[in-house]
Specification:
The complex is a heterodimer. Chain A is mainly α. Helices cover 67% and strands 1% of the residues of chain A. Chain A is built from 14 helices and two strands. Chain A has helices at residues 2-10, 36-62, 79-86, 88-120, 127-135, 142-152, 159-164, 179-207, 211-219, 224-235, 237-252, 256-261, 274-283, 288-317, and strands at 65-66, 74-75. A two-stranded antiparallel ribbon of chain A has the order 1-2. The radius of gyration of chain A is 26 Å and the shape is flat. By secondary structure, chain B is of the alpha/beta class. Chain B has two domains: 2-151 and 318-362, D-Maltodextrin-Binding Protein, domain 2, CATH 3.40.190; 154-316 and 382-436, D-Maltodextrin-Binding Protein, domain 2, CATH 3.40.190.10. Helices cover 44% and strands 12% of the residues of chain B. Chain B has a five-stranded mixed sheet with strand order 2-1-3-12-4, with helices on both faces. Chain B has a four-stranded mixed sheet with strand order 7-10-6-11. A two-stranded antiparallel ribbon of chain B has the order 5-13. Chain B is globular and about 70 Å long. Classes of the chains: A mainly alpha, B alpha/beta. The interface between A and B is large, with 33 and 38 residues.
Chain lengths: 321, 439
């Protein structure tokens, strides 16, 4: 209440105090006429400048050079970009990245929403316990995950092929050499790692849905499924968009999982992702300039996706009609 | 990053140790696999309490990338291990400067009691080592950038129990006679596979773990791989014309098509399990792999033996240890290396871990020749590998050897998984390598 009063009182104060002609400026912060703020935010911007902006500008610069480590860069014009557009590996990497993204994001959405709906249940015992263990995969090392999943997905002795072998007529699936099988393996690792995080996000937004809505729905005779379908899901619209955007960003960065399966992305580059492609150009093939060009191409792809995302979000939230 | 953290914590730890009058030195070694043996490391630290040895392990390729970066920026490593396929990279261009020229170093005499005399430069210890193996650590400007730790030495490890079951001879001399050529090796494999029951075949059992491994074996039996010496640092690229490549490729494809391979990629979890389950009757095993087999499949003890490689003379792998150009402890690092890679220590490493010595002075030493390994049916492994190593011819290692090798490996992988025909896959390998030299 006092806070409310204080804010009421503040309303009377002018919005731009430095423009009002007070006789004596207050000592301290006031005497700097508000410029104090710049000092407060300077550390972030300095660090951002050094570690964020500068490397970006520098990488744009070196994208026009042919440059191997420990050798002098040599101006290469637009050749890196021309070569990139003709490089079949680049297009393969785009295909793989989006395939892995789709295979990990959509099942993940489905699992996360279903499990969150279960966790929301008021009669569930040991809520904190379930919520905590859901986050455990998220803090597990990717390398460790890959080693374990490789054993699960092993062609000859993996647990998954062992189970599939129980079905008559099913051959062992090669989860490394096959294109879609290898994508499924990687997508499973990503899903396993991130689904808990998404469950918590969905749970939080489900808990924010007022109970009255469910109460009135049940008064109207809605079944549990109908409540979920017509009350819960529509209220999750924005959260779904958020999870999709975060998932897309993550999906474009998939690197460690395929790298651990095979540093070159498989014998026919069947699971070479964009970031792995970039990394390999710089550190396996020693082409710093070309790798920088790949980085720019990835940036452009991200920009396009962000624009599409932005457009979809506006559509969904009904703005800009 | 982790390395830096470890180093930081180690240095911090040392600072709290009260000085004992002697200056404490920490030697950071960037290494992989079993290059630095813990037992010998402890032995050296006991000999020299003032020296602390901190090995930091990486996989071979990430280690190479780390080495390149640290050469440009400086780093914490005093000693770095680099594998032979990468030696061509470090020997050419302006890259030898990343390592200290060991001809300029002299042993200090701190290990005189342990058999390393004072005042020895790399030029003076050279005579202990196998000459062509030593050259792999010598840059094209003649500076010595690394001392060889071991020779890959490749032979065939085979399962006597499985051979017996298939009606094949089990005696190592008789087995070696089965395959004077690669074609005979493949024929033996087919004979073995034909004796397998349908159930065994369905369970993925076959003659050799991975038919793809034949490629490297055949390549290393030649004298030229992808680069031909032409009196320049870089050498001449011959990956399109060298007939040895086609021979190795065709032999491997033939082996794949004949169905003798279990298609278990080496060092995968399937391979480890398959070793225990008898999924393969043979492995083309470099000396350093013997220890791996022992660790992964301890229950198969006594069921293995070792025979000669078809044609004779095989090599795979091998490592150099070099002192970094930016190291602040060059003297201590050099003293450690000269001790660690001296014949006495290499013999110990061979007996405990199976890494075959690069010091040729040992090759007529009874201690090496008479050494038998219980795990491999008391096979005289020392004698068998020595014989193979002495048949080897030096091969010119070029700058991108490892990368080119991996392209051929991927190409054979496509053939093995029947994703592409041999011709198509070979053409893709060549165009993939072409790409390496563009941009």
């Amino acid at each position: 209440m006092t806070q409310f009063k204080a804010s009421q009182g503040r309303k009377k104060a002018p919005l731009t105090p430095w423009k009002t002609k007070t006789k004596k400026p207050l000592p301290g912060v006031g005497s700097l006429n508000g410029r104090w703020g710049y000092f407060a935010i300077a550390p972030f911007f300095l660090i951002f400048l050094v570690f964020g902006v500068a490397p970006v500008i520098y990488s744009i610069y070196i994208a026009f050079f042919k440059w191997a480590p420990m050798e002098d860069p040599e101006f290469n014009g637009l050749n890196n970009f021309i070569f990139l557009l003709q490089d079949s590996d680049f297009w393969l990497a785009i295909r793989n990245t989006f395939s892995i993204w789709a295979l990990s994001t959509f099942p993940q959405l489905f699992i996360a929403i279903s499990l969150a709906a279960i966790l929301r249940n008021k009669r569930l015992k040991g809520k904190s316990f379930w919520r905590t263990i859901l986050l455990v995969p998220n803090i597990t090392s990717i390398i460790a995950i890959t080693i374990v999943f490789q054993q699960l997905f092993g062609r000859e002795y993996g647990l998954i092929n062992l189970l599939l072998g129980l079905i008559p007529g099913v051959e062992n699936i090669d989860f490394i050499e096959g294109v879609i099988p290898s994508h499924i393996q990687i997508a499973t690792m990503i899903t396993w790692r991130w689904v808990g995080y998404n469950i918590l996000i969905f749970l939080a937004s489900m808990l924010a849905i007022p109970d009255e809505l469910y109460e009135s729905a049940s008064v109207d005779g809605a079944t549990k499924w109908q409540q979920f379908r017509y009350v819960t899901l529509p209220s999750l619209k924005n959260t779904i968009t958020f999870v999709l955007i975060v998932g897309t960003i993550g999906g474009l960065q998939v690197f460690a999982e395929p790298q651990q399966l095979n540093a070159e992305g498989g014998s026919s580059k069947q699971f070479l992702t964009l970031t792995l492609f970039l990394f390999n150009q710089a550190f396996l093939n020693n082409k710093y300039g070309y790798a920088a060009a790949v980085g720019i191409a990835i940036t452009i792809i991200v920009l396009i996706i962000s624009a599409v995302n932005f457009w979809i979000t506006r559509k969904i939230s009904g703005e800009g009609k | 990053m982790v390395g830096a953290l470890i180093c930081a914590s180690v240095t911090a730890g040392l600072l709290t140790v009260p000085a004992k009058g002697v200056e404490q030195v920490t030697l950071t070694i960037w290494t992989f696999g079993e290059v630095i043996q813990p037992a010998l490391q402890r032995e050296y630290m006991k000999l020299h309490p003032e020296i602390k040895i901190v090995p930091i392990k990486n996989d071979v390729d990430p280690l190479h990338q780390k080495t390149i970066l640290s050469c440009q920026t400086g780093g914490p490593a005093d000693i770095i291990a680099f594998e032979t396929p990468y030696s061509g990279y470090w020997r050419t261009g302006n890259r030898p400067k990343c390592f200290q020229d060991l001809r300029e170093m002299k042993t200090s005499g701190t290990n005189a009691a342990a058999g390393v005399a004072a005042g020895l430069s790399a030029a003076e210890i050279k005579k202990n080592y196998l000459p062509w193996r030593w050259e792999q650590g010598v840059a094209f400007n003649d500076s010595v950038i690394g001392i060889p730790t071991d020779v890959g030495g490749l032979q065939v490890a085979y399962r006597t129990d499985l051979f017996k079951k298939a009606g094949l001879p089990t005696d190592r001399a008789a087995v070696s006679k089965l395959w004077p050529t690669w074609d005979k090796f493949i024929a033996t494999g087919q004979k073995y596979v034909s004796k397998l029951t349908p159930a065994e075949k369905k369970a993925g059992k076959a003659f050799i773990d991975d038919a793809g491994s034949i490629y490297a074996a055949v390549m290393n039996q030649g004298t030229v791989k992808y680069y031909e010496p032409n009196n320049t640092d870089a050498g001449k690229l011959v990956y399109k014309t060298n007939p040895q490549i086609k021979t190795a490729w065709n032999t491997t494809v033939k082996a794949m098509n004949s169905g003798i391979g279990a298609r278990l990629g080496q060092f995968t979890s399937d391979w480890n399990i398959g070793m225990n389950k008898g999924a393969m009757a043979t492995i083309l095993a470099p000396a350093w792999m013997l220890d791996y087999i022992k660790k992964q499949a301890p229950d198969t003890k006594g069921k293995w033996d070792i025979a000669d490689l078809p044609v004779g003379g095989g090599n795979q792998g091998g490592t150099q240890l070099g002192v970094t150009g930016y190291s602040k402890n060059k003297q201590a690092a050099y003293d450690f290396l000269t001790w660690y890679l001296a014949p006495e220590q290499q013999l110990k490493v061979f007996k405990t871990y199976g890494l075959f010595p690069s010091t040729s002075v040992l090759y007529d030493d009874a201690a090496l020749l008479e050494y038998k390994d219980e795990f491999f049916s008391n096979a005289p492994v020392g004698q068998i590998y020595t014989k193979g190593v002495l048949q080897l011819k030096p091969i010119f290692e070029g700058e991108l050897q490892r990368t080119i090798d991996s392209k051929f490996g991927a190409g054979l992988g496509r053939v093995a998984s029947k994703k592409m025909t041999s011709e198509k896959s070979f053409a893709l390998v060549i165009s993939d390598i072409d790409k390496l030299f563009k941009n």
